[in-house]
Write a structure and sequence with these properties.
174 residues, mainly alpha, two-stranded antiparallel ribbon, 10 helices, 5% strand, globular
């Protein structure tokens, strides 16, 4: 299930990727083996939840994506990949303080644990994007809203479809 989900995610067939990742998560978490070896299986499940969240992001269901990233980070709290992606979801939803917190945690993991699962370039790019968006919204009374799971914004930078697509395509790690 995991490899099929990853293949469909890479091909851009996000609905099919969602079905495979959901099936994997449901089968594994329902099994007694998972409950017995939850600590051993948490890495695989956290990556499946991470990729499932990315698929939901790509179909613009930010609420479900955020929920799944939060589940994933509970299973793998030191994962730089999931920390990065949580930073991105918070950036997309306008929660800049949490975006900064999670991106800083990625930098901390790189420093303290030589964790290079998120490249220096990607981290720098995500931090720059956060800074640019924060600068753009200061004093403009702009706010971001989630309505029915869709991203709605009156911030010109983030309503630009190319900018949103670039963020989703280039900022996440899977």
């Amino acid at each position: 299930f995991y490899n099929l989900g990853k293949m469909y995610l890479a091909e851009g067939d996000f609905r099919r990727a969602i079905s495979y990742y959901e099936a994997l998560v449901n089968v594994v978490t329902a099994s007694d083996t998972f409950k017995f070896n939850e600590k051993d299986n948490s890495g695989m499940i956290s990556l499946a939840l991470n990729n499932l969240a990315i698929a939901y992001l790509r179909v613009e269901d930010l609420g479900m994506a955020k929920k799944l990233f939060l589940q994933a980070i509970r299973l793998a709290p030191k994962s730089s990949i999931i920390r990065n992606n949580l930073g991105c979801i918070y950036l997309l939803t306008g929660d800049f303080a949490h975006a900064q917190k999670y991106l800083d945690m990625v930098a901390e993991s790189k420093r303290n644990f030589a964790d290079n699962s998120v490249s220096d370039e990607k981290l720098a790019s995500n931090k720059k994007l956060l800074s640019d968006v924060q600068r753009h919204t200061v004093g403009t009374n702009s706010k971001l809203e989630l309505i029915s799971g869709l991203f709605i914004s009156n911030v010109n930078y983030l309503t630009n479809e190319n900018a949103k697509a670039d963020l989703l395509r280039n900022s996440l790690v899977w």
